[in-house]
Specification:
CATH superfamily of the largest domain: MFS general substrate transporter like domains
Number of helices: 26
Number of strands: 0
Order of helices and strands: HHHHHHHHHHHHHHHHHHHHHHHHHH
GO molecular function: electron transfer activity; FMN binding; heme binding; metal ion binding; oxidoreductase activity, acting on diphenols and related substances as donors; transmembrane transporter activity
InterPro entries: Fe3_Rdtase_TM_dom, MFS, MFS_dom, MFS_trans_sf, MsrQ-like
Keywords: Cell membrane, Electron transport, Flavoprotein, FMN, Heme, Iron, Membrane, Metal-binding, Transmembrane, Transmembrane helix, Transport
CATH architecture of the largest domain: Up-down Bundle
CATH class of the largest domain: Mainly Alpha
Subunit structure: Heterodimer of a catalytic subunit (MsrP) and a heme-binding subunit (MsrQ).
Shape: globular
Structural class: mainly alpha
Pfam family, one: MFS_1
């Protein structure tokens, strides 16, 4: 037990914390959120003033850094969630603060390298963002799980509401106040020092004052894997399917607004006659107003979800946030103070959805796998953040600074329609918040809609701007369209490649039917990528295409991968397996390993030097190919890692 933690009386179970410990939990949540918010808010200013990133690349580079940080955080923090059920939450919280301390120390080094060598310091800055994101997210996730351990159905809305209140206070209001220092001499350096100091303080407070409540869960070879138990819980309860779909869009709210609203202010600062540090401070004030709306709305939503269906609460909050995003996308000037109104709407909607998701997850989750359930929710939210930030960065550079907000609004509206569909089909809660019926809902429609969203966003934007009717892409550069489609093709290829290891690790056999669907979406985006290259970029001019391939021979790698992908797509149906024969079909589809390797190399050679995203994708491909090779050689990776 950590030093100074209050021990329970002999012979009694630990069921609650002392008032002092509750105050420390709320304080730690505040500083954890503050570290996460500062690392995001200061990023656009650093890339612009310290690392000298060109204006036309700011959106993509900022998005790439956030995507890399989220991808690494998904893996690490998701694993921490599983691990916390075995070793306790407090150890992971302390570890999270230590990781944040290391990240803050590296950030100060990257600042000096950036001042001396410009963009050469980006490598260290990537590492900084990864460490700060992993550390801060681990702290916040495990504090939520720790409170879930001690809560009951009666007090859970109040406790989770308090936790969300403090998290939002630290991540918006407090961060907005701290960011005002950026407009003063030496202010940026002080802001970058703050995560180091609060990280050390957080580690000491955790080590000395917190203790675990839930007993560690022993494991044996006969136990069902926690991820399989998570899958069983989610697939048996439509509310959890809605909750995870909502998490996909909700977790990205503060990141999207902090990142792209700051970029928007900086991008127009010269036009309105203000400095870029002032623009950064102004953006922080507006995000602070959003946080104020969240803080004011949390008690109201807490009362609402105690009296009404969780499904209704998710639908109402998502629709309000969606309307706020779409309204925000209609403003031309971010320095117009009326933008506070849609930001307030987003904040109120975010508060309702976030509190409801926290309460519902703990309500439905069995205690032995609560950490795994919370970690799974973080995983889905992280994937959503990756997709939304990646798309938002492309849209910001190619279509304008307001495009990411329209993107968020349309996505939230989609999940709102899913909530309405559940209610219309009689899937709702009783007055004591139990599910009325045990009806199961197939995930295929939701997977299909999610995978199709990147194309729908691109097509919808084209129709809205009149690109198709005018016979051109208008303001959207062809290079943007081409890279956007290619990136999504590679993303779905990696997801498809990863699904079999996940299936083997967890024992969830039903993942197989989704793997084929994801693979076909990878082929669809690859077709769109190639069509964009030969039609939009070169207008079917073979001579110009050959000249471009001669200048950029890595294009041949992409074409080779596409050629190998065609027979895989056309033989994916069950009827083709029977016609070809199982062994021959498996041998043919083993080409997916070669395809992923070729695309990874193509992606790296096509990227600019500021973009670290291709290397993370390539690392993921290497890990997955190593796994398959080890299994093919007769090794047992699962047993070696003790996760099977």
């Amino acid at each position: 037990m950590p030093r100074n933690a209050e021990a329970p009386a002999k012979g009694t179970a630990v069921t609650d914390f002392a008032p002092t410990q509750w105050n420390i939990i709320y304080l730690l949540m505040t500083v954890g959120a503050l570290v996460a918010a500062l690392s995001i808010s200061i990023q656009p200013l650093l890339l612009d003033k310290i690392f000298g990133i060109a204006f036309e690349k700011e959106g993509a580079v900022n998005a790439d850094i956030q995507v890399v940080a989220e991808i690494v955080s998904i893996v690490c923090v998701g694993w921490f969630g599983l691990l916390s059920d075995r070793i306790g939450r407090v150890r992971i919280i302390a570890l999270g603060f230590l990781i944040a301390v290391v990240g803050a120390a590296v950030s100060l080094l990257s600042l000096q390298v950036g001042l001396a060598f410009g963009a050469a310091g980006l490598v260290l800055f990537y590492l900084t963002r990864v460490l700060l994101t992993v550390g801060a997210d681990a702290v916040q996730l495990q504090l939520s799980t720790l409170v879930g351990d001690v809560s009951s159905r009666a007090n859970r809305p109040r406790l989770m509401g308090n936790l969300v209140f403090m998290m939002v206070f630290g991540g918006t209001m407090l961060a907005a106040i701290v960011m005002q220092m950026a407009d003063y001499p030496g202010g940026v350096f002080l802001i970058m020092c703050l995560p180091l100091l609060v990280g050390i303080a957080g580690f000491q407070l955790t080590r000395r004052n917190l203790r675990d409540v839930a007993p560690p869960q022993p494991t044996s070879e006969d136990d069902e894997h926690p991820l399989r138990q998570v899958w069983t819980v989610i697939t048996s309860d439509p509310r959890m399917q809605l909750a995870f779909a909502a998490t996909f869009y909700t977790r990205a709210d503060v990141i999207i607004l902090s990142l792209f609203f700051s970029l928007w202010c900086i991008s127009v600062s010269d036009l309105v006659g203000v400095t870029r540090t002032f623009a950064t401070a102004h953006a922080a004030v507006m995000i602070g107003l959003l946080g104020l709306a969240v803080l004011a709305a949390v008690p109201l939503w807490r009362s609402f979800i105690e009296r009404h269906s969780r499904i209704s609460a998710i639908g109402a909050s998502l629709s309000l946030a969606a309307l706020g995003y779409i309204w925000l996308g209609m403003f031309a000037n971010p320095f117009n103070w009326l933008v506070a109104l849609p930001l307030l709407m987003v904040g109120i909607g975010h508060a309702g959805c976030f509190v409801t998701l926290q309460v519902l997850t703990v309500d439905v989750s069995p205690k032995p796998i609560l950490g795994a359930m919370v970690g799974a929710g973080y995983l889905v939210g992280g994937l959503g953040t990756v997709m939304l930030v990646q798309s938002g960065g492309y849209y910001f550079d190619a279509l304008g600074p307001r495009a990411p907000f329209i993107l968020m609004g349309t996505g939230k509206m989609l999940v709102t329609l899913y909530a309405a569909w559940l209610l219309a089909n009689g899937i709702d809660e009783t007055c004591d918040h139990h599910l009325k019926s045990a009806r199961k809902v197939d995930w295929k429609p939701l997977v299909f809609l999610t995978a199709a969203l990147p194309f729908v966003w691109l097509l919808g934007r084209s129709v809205i701007e009149g690109y198709i009717s005018n016979g051109s892409l208008g303001e959207a550069p062809v290079g943007f369209v081409n890279r956007y489609l290619g990136d999504w093709a590679f993303t779905f290829l990696i997801i498809s490649l990863a699904m079999r290891p996940v299936q083997e690790i967890t024992g969830i056999k039903t993942l197989a039917k989704y793997r084929r669907m994801i693979g076909l979406f990878a082929f669809f985006y690859a077709v769109m990528h190639v069509l964009a290259y030969v039609t939009l970029e070169w207008a079917l001019n073979l001579g110009d295409m050959m000249g471009d391939i001669y200048k950029r021979p890595f294009i041949l790698l992409g074409l080779a991968a596409f050629a190998l992908l065609i027979p895989l797509a056309f033989t994916s149906a069950n009827s083709q397996i029977k016609r070809i024969g199982g062994k021959r079909w498996k041998k043919l589809h083993s080409a997916t390993y070669v395809i992923n390797a070729l695309v990874a190399l193509h992606f790296i050679l096509a990227a600019n030097h500021e973009n670290g995203e291709p290397y993370v994708y390539a690392a993921a491909v290497i890990v997955l190919l190593w796994y398959r090779f080890h299994q093919w050689r007769g090794g047992n990776v699962l047993r070696a890692l003790r996760i099977g």
